[in-house]
Every structure is written in C-alpha cells, then in structure tokens.
C-alpha cells in the first residue's frame, strides 16, 4: 500500500517535519502536560482522600472536566495568547487532571479500614499510617489514574497541530490540507501505534506495581475503555 | 454560520451518531454473547478503535465519505458503539443463572432469550452506556469542524480563524458544555422512567 | 413496548438526520457556496450568497480549509460555487492537469490569465465567470522592527539577508508545494528558507507567530485589514513573482445559467480592492459579522 511506501521514504524520517521530530514533540507535550497535571491533581486528590473532606468538590471537578471539550479549550487558550506548544500543554494538563484527581481521591479514601486499624494497633502515628499503610495500598489505583491520563493525553496531543504546536497531528492536518490521503493515513497509523504502545507499556508497569503491592479488589476494572473520549 | 444553525446541526449529528451506534451495538452484543468466543475479539477491536483520537478517525474517514456530515457521524458512531457495546455485553452477561434456566424451561431458545429477557434486564446498563456515549459525542462533534460539519465546533473554529475572535470561541464552548450537561440530565430522567426497578445509578 | 417506542423514535431521528445531511442539488434554485478558512473568503461567500438570496435562491455556505480540499468538491458538484482567485486557481489547475513541472500560464495580464484559466477549468467541468477588479495577491511580511534593523524593503533584500541569517518562513501547510509560495521564493528570488513552519494562510496563527518572533517572514494577504495595526511591513514583490489574483467566481458548469451568471458578475464588477480591505478590517479588527458586512456592501451597491 502507498502508506507503506511513505514509511520507507527516507525524507519522511529526517528534518523538522520528519517522523522522529514529530514523535518527540508529541512525547514532550504529553510529558510536560501530565507532569504538570500530576503536580496539581495528585496532592489534591491524596489530601482530600486522606482527610475525608472535599470529595464533593472532587466529583464536581471531575464531572466538569468530562464535559469540557478539549478541542474548544485548546482553541480558546491559543486565542488568549498562547499560540504554539504552550496552549496545547495547558489545555492537555487541564484535560489530564480529572482522572488523576478522582483516582487519587478514591484510592486513599478507599483504603481498607482493617488495614488502618491494624496499623494503629501496631502503634503507627498518623504520619506513619499515611506513608506506610495508606499510600502503598493506594498506589495501584493512583497509578491507574496516571495511566488513564497519560494515554488520553498522548492521543489528544494530536490536536496540538491545530494551534501550531507540532506533533503527529501535523501529518494529519498537512495531509488533509494537501489532499494527500497517504500522509493522513500514515499520521493516523502513527498516532494509533503511539497510543497503543503507551497503553501497553503503562499496563506492564501497572502489573508490576500491583504485583508488588497487592491488587486493589474490584477497583481495577478491565483494561478496556478507561479512556473517556471528549476530543 | 449562526449559533442556532450550529446548535441544530450539533444536535442532529449527535442524535444520528448515537442512533447508529445503538442500532449496531445491541444486535452485535446479542450476537457476541450468543457465540461466546466473539466477545473478546469484539471488545478488543473496539478498544483499538477507541484509542484513535477523533481528529485522526474523522480525517481517516474523509477519503471515504468526503466533506460531509456523514464522515463525522460515522466516526462518532464508532466511538459511541464501543461504549454502548461494552455496556450491553456486560449487561447481557449479567443475567442471573436461575432466570436463565427458568427461561429455557419455558421454551425460549438461547437467542430469543437474550433478546426477550436479556435486553430488558440489561436496560439499566445499556442506558448508562447511551448516556456516557452521548456526553462524549457532544464534545467530539466539535472536531468535525475540520470537514465543515462541527456544529458548535464550527462557530469555535470560525472564531479562531477570524483573527482569534474570542466571543464565538467562548460562546460555542459554553453552549457545547451546557448541551452535554442538559442531555445527560435528560437521559438520567429517561433512564429512571424506562427502568424504575433499577437503583439510581451513576458511572 | 417501551423499547420499541424508543427504538422507533431513534430510527426516525436517524432517517431525518440522513435526509438533512445530504445536500439536495436537484432543485435548480438551490446553491452551495464553498468558502476557504480565512475571513476574506467567508466575507466573499456571504456577499455572493446575499445577492443570490435576494433573487430568490436558496443558498448555503460550506466552510472548508483550502483549495486542495475545495477544488475536488467543486468539480464533483458537492459545492457549486467557490469565490476563487484568478492566478492561483489557474496555476493550481495547470499543475493538476499538466504535471508539477508545467510552465506557468498565469501572468500579470488579467485577460490572458483568464483565457488560460477558463480553458483549464472547462476540462474539469468548471466555469470561470468575469473577474472582479478587486484582487488579493499573496504577499510576504516581516515585523516592522526587523525590516528597519536590516533595511528590508523588497523581497530581494530578504533573499540577500537569507544568505547570512536563518530565515524561518510561516505559511499554510500547502506552501511548500505552491509555486507562488516557498518554491517561488527559493526559485525566483534564490531565498534560503531555513525552516518552514506550517501555520495558516495569512491568518491569526501566522500573524501571531510573526509578532511573537517564532517566524521571521509570513505569507500574508495583500487585502489584509490589519497590517498596520500589527506593525508589519509588506515586502515589495520586485521580481513580479505573484500573478494577478482577482476575485473570480468559479461555478461548476452544470449549475451555470444565464441568470446566475448575471447576478454573480454584477457582484464581482461592483467590488474594488479597497472595499475588500475595508470589509476585511471590519470583520478582523472591528469584530463585525461577515454576513452583516456583506449585507451592508450589497445594499450600498444596490445589489439587493
């Protein structure tokens, strides 16, 4: 197929519009967005879960986050003065907060009360209880939230091309503008591969974490469909 | 394009995509559960499609359907299909064994059992699926602006290309968010009416 | 049963949606106008649409990205009319039909270009009507302070500068393939483009990138209403790379009728470049709606 020919063309693998550059752009955007979101969502989720307060706020934020179309948010931010990569990163970070926030909150608040009681019985202080009992038990679910967010973000980072932010979406948009179906399909293929690889890789990490720290009963739903498409 | 036309187009595309998804998902789910080996491949295929971002799927279908609303509808139907299919399968697989045996005893075949008994029992799960799919679809329609049929997304994109005119970008976004919330609320009400025996569920 | 009712309603909705999403071109008084994704094209589409609507036509406007997407839609009849640009469209058809190395047939002569354009268009079932006096050439702009610092007035000046300095070009994704865009700069002017950044066709993305300094030179429209406001300097096309780009309605031949031709030509004849710039400014800077600005223009010219 012509798509395969496109992939074997060396000119598509070099230069500022080549596959490696675009892949790198997509990864960098994703990494920065997820890290920024994690820096906000994880502490917020963990603290509210630990204190047992503020879960209504958490639920509202998560619901609102689900309802905001990332595409529109992206254009809004770019129009407000952030053309290029920065608009994409901010929009994607906002997009990544709800799943990490919700998961962190439920993970900590849902820790088995028996485990807590056992910890207290052994004489743990509140702090020790948190770091040595709650957090390790919550880690698999917290990581599941990070995983969901990461896969969503790397897929949606494709939209960055809309606002001049580079990434794999460039192949799709440019191919569309040039009526070059081959480029479009190649771009689609690349995005699908990258997203699935990220999902697979993080699934392995998740399995490793769960294996070491014990499975969270019933919370880890099937690996399909934890990404919730709004863009 | 004015706001009202955009809103109407947005609603029509959402409705068409969800309808298409339901019409395919429910028979497909019955088929999959009936011939058990089909369940996993179907879900895996669906999950694979679901990882493709909407921009990619819509432009991927553009060579086939052209610059039309059909491109957007088919792409969004594929996403909605995944959610509704999964929920329907889970719902159908949740028929209690004693109900299953009773129905067989009454003379139902496996197939008609799934349809006449399974689907009504799975209705709460199916409705949740339709609700999730609808909220998701409302957001996704906006990306269809690339092929000229993005509903409220068209207003947003037009504003963007017209020298970053923020008013329509905001207006389009807010309307889309509100539309999603209103549709979700309406579907919750519908959910309760169609299956009053089910506890008030949330995803 | 309830399920049957819901399913029945759903199927009815789907049927309705399917009906409304197909463009009905069977009625002769119904027309779909295609517009490119920049302000001016939308204004032009509204102007022509307004004039047709006043004469009883049922007009709708489809927004799309660019010529690569819209031209096939025009040829197939999916859209029936596009407000095109004479020189660029002629060369586009030329390359499509005669290959990428075809000699340019568009020139700085409107009549000659029109003849060539009409002949090429006929081959794909499209008719070019009469060109308007209003024109929008492709042009290239740099930041004002950049021009002052390096003494840039003409494109040749920039080409000379590109020998010693990295020049980043911003433009629409199709720029590297358009003869009057990047290939023209490199060929005719011998300019060295260090990097091409795909943005948009003289739209807000390119202009913002230029202002922010992420690119050094940007494609811009000669009819852009905000050049001064942004502090840009448009470089003079001293070697005459750009061809005549008068506005000309391109109509799919099957939809051409004498009445349609008269209406559209009347509109084209009434437009001047200055009026086009004013309309662009009204929408881009004063934030007025394209439909309103178009209606005002039509009323002032007595076309409604």
Descriptive report:
- The complex is a heterotrimer of chains A (231), B (203) and C (304).
- Chain A is mostly helical.
- Chain A has one domain: MetI-like fold (Orthogonal Bundle).
- Chain A has nine helices and no strands.
- Chain A has helices at 2-8, 19-51, 55-67, 70-79, 85-109, 113-122, 126-156, 169-177, 181-213.
- In chain A, helix 3 (55-67) packs antiparallel against helix 5 (85-109), helix 4 (70-79) packs across helix 5 (85-109) and helix 6 (113-122) packs antiparallel against helix 7 (126-156).
- Chain B is built from eight helices and no strands.
- Chain B has helices at residues 3-34, 39-51, 54-65, 69-93, 97-106, 110-140, 152-161, 166-194.
- Chain C has two domains: 28-135 and 245-300, Periplasmic binding protein-like II (D-Maltodextrin-Binding Protein, domain 2); 138-234, D-Maltodextrin-Binding Protein, domain 2 (3-Layer(aba) Sandwich).
- Chain C is built from twelve helices and ten strands.
- In chain C, 50% of the residues are buried.
- Classes of the chains: A mainly alpha (231), B mainly alpha (203), C alpha/beta (304).
- Chain A binds chain B through residues 66-73, 75-76, 78-80, 151, 155-156, 158-159, 169, 172-173, 175-176, 181, 184-185, 187-188, 191-192, 195-196, 199, 224-225, 227-231, and chain B through 43-44, 46-48, 50-57, 59-60, 62-63, 79, 82-83, 86, 132, 135-136, 138-140, 142-143, 146, 153, 156-157, 159-160, 164-166, 169-170, 172-173, 176-177, 180-181, 184.
Descriptive keywords:
heterotrimer; B: about 200 residues; mainly alpha; MetI-like fold; C: about 300 residues; alpha/beta; D-Maltodextrin-Binding Protein, domain 2; 2 domains; 5-stranded mixed sheet; 3-stranded antiparallel sheet; 10 strands
């Amino acid at each position: 197929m012509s798509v395969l020919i496109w992939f074997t063309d060396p000119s598509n693998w070099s230069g500022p519009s080549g596959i490696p550059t675009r892949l790198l752009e997509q990864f960098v955007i994703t990494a920065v967005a997820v890290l920024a979101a994690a820096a906000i969502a994880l502490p917020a989720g963990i603290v509210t879960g630990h204190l047992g307060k503020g879960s209504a706020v958490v639920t509202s934020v998560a619901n609102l986050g689900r309802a905001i179309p990332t595409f529109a948010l992206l254009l809004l931010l770019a129009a407000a003065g952030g053309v290029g990569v920065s608009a994409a990163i901010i929009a994607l970070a906002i997009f990544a907060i709800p799943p990490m926030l919700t998961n962190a909150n439920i993970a900590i608040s849902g820790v088995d009360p028996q485990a807590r009681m056992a910890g207290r019985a052994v004489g743990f202080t509140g702090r020790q209880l948190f770091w040595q009992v709650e957090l390790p038990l919550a880690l698999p679910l917290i990581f599941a939230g990070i995983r969901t967010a990461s896969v969503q973000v790397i897929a949606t980072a494709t939209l960055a091309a809309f606002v001049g932010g580079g990434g794999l979406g460039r192949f799709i948009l440019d191919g569309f503008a040039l009526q070059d179906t081959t480029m479009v399909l190649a771009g689609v293929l690349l995005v699908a591969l990258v997203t699935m690889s990220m999902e697979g890789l993080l699934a392995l990490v998740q399995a490793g974490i769960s294996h070491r720290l014990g499975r969270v009963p019933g919370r880890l739903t099937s690996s399909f469909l934890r990404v919730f498409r709004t863009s | 394009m004015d706001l009202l036309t955009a809103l109407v187009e947005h609603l029509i595309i959402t409705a068409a995509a969800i309808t298409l998804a339901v019409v395919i998902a429910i028979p497909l789910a019955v088929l999959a559960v009936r011939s058990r080996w089909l369940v996993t491949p179907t879900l895996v295929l669906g999950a694979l499609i679901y990882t493709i971002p909407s921009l990619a799927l819509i432009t991927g279908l553009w060579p086939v359907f052209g610059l039309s609303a059909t491109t957007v509808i088919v792409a969004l139907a594929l996403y909605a299909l995944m959610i509704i299919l999964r929920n329907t399968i889970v719902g159908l697989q949740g028929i209690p064994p004693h109900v299953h045996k009773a129905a067989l005893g009454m003379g139902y075949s496996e197939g008609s059992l799934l349809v006449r008994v399974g689907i009504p029992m799975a209705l709460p799960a199916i409705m949740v699926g339709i609700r999730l799919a609808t909220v998701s679809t409302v957001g996704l329609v906006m990306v269809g602006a690339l092929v000229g049929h993005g509903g409220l997304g068209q207003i947003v994109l037009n504003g963007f290309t017209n020298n970053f005119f923020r008013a329509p970008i905001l207006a389009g976004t807010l309307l889309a968010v509100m539309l999603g919330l209103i549709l979700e609320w309406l579907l919750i009400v519908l959910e309760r009416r169609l299956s009053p025996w089910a506890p008030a569920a949330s995803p | 049963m309830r399920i049957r009712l819901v399913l029945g309603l759903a199927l009815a909705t789907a049927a309705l949606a399917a009906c409304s999403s197909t463009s009905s071109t069977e009625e002769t008084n119904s027309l779909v106008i295609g517009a490119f994704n920049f302000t001016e094209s939308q204004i032009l589409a509204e102007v022509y649409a307004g004039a047709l609507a006043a004469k009883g036509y049922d007009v709708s406007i489809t927004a799309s990205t660019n010529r690569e997407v819209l031209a096939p839609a025009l040829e197939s009849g999916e859209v029936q009319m596009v407000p095109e640009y004479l020189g660029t469209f002629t060369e586009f058809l030329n390359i499509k039909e005669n290959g990428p190395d075809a000699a340019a047939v568009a020139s700085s002569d409107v009549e000659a270009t029109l003849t060539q354009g009409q002949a090429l268009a006929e081959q794909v079932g499209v008719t070019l009507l009469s060109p308007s006096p209003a024109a929008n050439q492709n042009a290239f702009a740099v930041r004002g302070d950049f021009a002052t610092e390096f003494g840039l007035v003409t494109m040749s000046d920039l080409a000379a500068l590109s020998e010693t300095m990295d020049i980043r070009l911003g433009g629409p994704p199709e720029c590297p393939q358009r003869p009057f865009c990047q290939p023209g700069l490199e060929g005719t002017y011998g300019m060295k483009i260090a990097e091409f950044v795909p943005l948009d066709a003289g739209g807000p993305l390119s202009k913002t990138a230029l202002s922010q300094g992420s690119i050094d030179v940007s494609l811009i429209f000669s009819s852009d209403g905000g050049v001064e406001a942004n502090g840009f300097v448009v470089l003079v096309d001293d070697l005459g790379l750009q061809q005549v780009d008068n506005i000309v309605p391109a109509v799919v031949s099957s939809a051409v009728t004498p009445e349609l031709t008269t209406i559209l030509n009347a509109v084209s004849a009434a437009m001047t470049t200055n009026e086009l710039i004013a309309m662009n400014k009204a929408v881009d800077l004063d934030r007025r709606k394209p439909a309103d600005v178009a209606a005002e223009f039509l009323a002032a010219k007595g076309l409604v």
